[in-house]
Amino acid sequence: MGETTKRTARLTFDDKSIEFPILSGSVGPDVIDIRTLYGAGDVFTFDPGFSSTASTESAITYIDGDKGELQYRGYPIEQLAEKSHYLEVCYLLLYGELPNAAQMSDFEARVTRHTMVHEQMHYFFRGFRRDSHPMATMVGVVGAMSAFYHDSTDINDPWQREVAAIRLIAKVPTIAAMAYKYSIGQPFVYPKNSLDYAGNFLHMCFAVPAEDYKVDPVLAKALDRIFMLHADHEQNASTSTVRLAGSSGANPFACIAAGIACLWGPAHGGANQACLEMLREIGTVDRIPEYIRRAKDKNDPFRLMGFGHRVYKNFDPRAKVMKESADEVLGLMGIENNPTLQVAKELERIALEDEYFVEKKLYPNVDFYSGIILEAMGFPTSMFTPIFALSRTVGWIAQWKEMIGDPTQRIGRPRQLYVGPKQRDYIDVRHR
Ligand code: CMC
């Protein structure tokens, strides 16, 4: 719980003067608690895009955007990316502490026992067009999980909440891989519980029944790191969507489907696909200035994808790790001269020196380098955002669980500044 400080804030307008408490968290900016404002002052605050609004208390993830720092439960992302692995990070996000060995193996066993989806779901997939984007399929199928797993939809039962969390972490990768297999006309590949989380996902995506598939441990490790880097990011658009959907009492599967839908947009998780497509479109280093010019042109809607962030006004720490990973993976695969990587590096160099980007503090974000690694692994661009979605599922579910357990939680209901017509009388169609 945030602590009330001795400081207060006073808002004076018309003949009113209202005092508000100032709350402190464990680290980061204080907040002015304006919950009594409407009752006392008959006014709302106006903050489209929520640039100055803390929508909740949370003990999960901390970001210092100016310093470019990201911590899960206090642990810096760089340390986790180097020393931890995805399922351990899942445990940390869900339960607040790093697991001991027994807790880890119990958690791993619980997740791996839930990786298969209900067999009837296979038929559900067949209702989609083959050329559906895997994100479109995922929104539908994850939402439909509430039709398959009724015994974990009672949000008031802590055990059912726990089962739903494990089911989502375990099954969303299976659903993502199935969406991919379906889109390329190959048979679904069942999960293989002897493999680790990332290895299993590679297997479900790239194995075919006709041949043996051996998971490359280097690729599995790199993919696991991508999962870790995307696991949570405090109150971003998709997480806020999950919380808002959940605030009405909707079941967790419906809430996560809402999060997936929100993530898909190119300003959010869809940026990884859009970024790689942009790098390919640029194609050669000599065309970069043209795209920089377009990004700066106010009359051109084009933006440099993979650049800029609402919170980071410094390097996105995830992008730093991702860049190192890209060098490592492409080097190990013997494709360090990948033309897309060359364009990305040069674009980054030029943009970081350009006055426009420097002045607006636009730095590469997590999506700038992830696509290059995923492409090298053999994923088509349409799978980039589903991979983000499956990695973020743990963050969404941890935030949802935190919200349901919060005694101060109420339905999320923002207000508005109404600028439409004032009351008027209906006019019959003959007189319009
Ligand atoms: N290229 C060119 N100009 C940009 C860019 C960009 N990528 N990003 C921001 N700007 C400009 C923008 O035009 C505005 O200029 P002005 O002040 O002159 O109007 C200024 O910088 C501030 O931008 P904003 O749109 O007000 O900032 P925001 O916080 O609302 O948007 C953002 C953040 C991430 C949506 C935006 O930077 C963007 O569209 N980036 C490209 C998409 C992208 O890479 N998204 C992934 C984000 S990280 C992963 C995730 O969250 O899923």
Itemize the secondary structure elements and their pairings:
Elements: E1 3-13, E2 16-24, E3 31-32, H1 37-41, E4 61-64, E5 69-72, E6 75-76, H2 77-83, H3 86-95, H4 101-112, H5 121-125, H6 134-148, H7 158-183, H8 197-206, H9 217-229, H10 237-247, H11 252-263, H12 271-282, H13 288-296, H14 317-332, H15 339-353, H16 355-359, H17 367-377, H18 384-404
Helix pairs in contact: 3-18, 6-7, 6-11, 7-8, 7-18, 8-9, 9-14, 9-17, 9-18, 10-11, 10-18, 11-18, 12-15, 12-17, 14-17
Bound molecules: carboxymethyl coenzyme *A.
Residues 49, 236, 267-269, 271, 295, 303-310, 360, 362, 365-367 line the site of carboxymethyl coenzyme *A.
Short characterization:
Helix content is 50%, strand content 7%.
Features:
18 helices, 3 domains, Citrate Synthase, domain 1, mainly alpha, 3-stranded antiparallel beta sheet, Cytochrome p450-Terp, domain 2, Rubrerythrin, domain 2, binds carboxymethyl coenzyme *A, 432 residues
This entry's quaternary arrangement is single chain
SSE class: mainly alpha
Helix content estimate: 40-55%
CATH superfamily of the largest domain: Citrate Synthase, domain 1
- Spatial sequence of strands, sheet with the most strands: 1-2-3
* SSE arrangement, N to C: EEEHEEEHHHHHHHHHHHHHHHHH
Number of helices: 18
Number of strand segments: 6
- Taking all Cα atoms into account, the compactness measure Rg is 23 Å
Overall average residue pLDDT: 95
Tell me, briefly, the overall form. globular
Say which molecules are bound, naming each kind only once. Answer: carboxymethyl coenzyme *A
Can you summarize the main beta sheet?
Answer: 3 strands, antiparallel
- The top level CATH class name of the largest domain: Mainly Alpha
CATH architecture of the largest domain: Orthogonal Bundle
> What is the number of independent domains?
3
Distance between the termini: 57 Å
Low-pLDDT regions: none
Strand content: 5-15%
Reported by name, the CATH topology of the largest domain is Citrate Synthase, domain 1
Family: Belongs to the citrate synthase family.
Protein name: Citrate synthase
Pfam family, one: Citrate_synt
GO molecular function, one term: citrate synthase activity
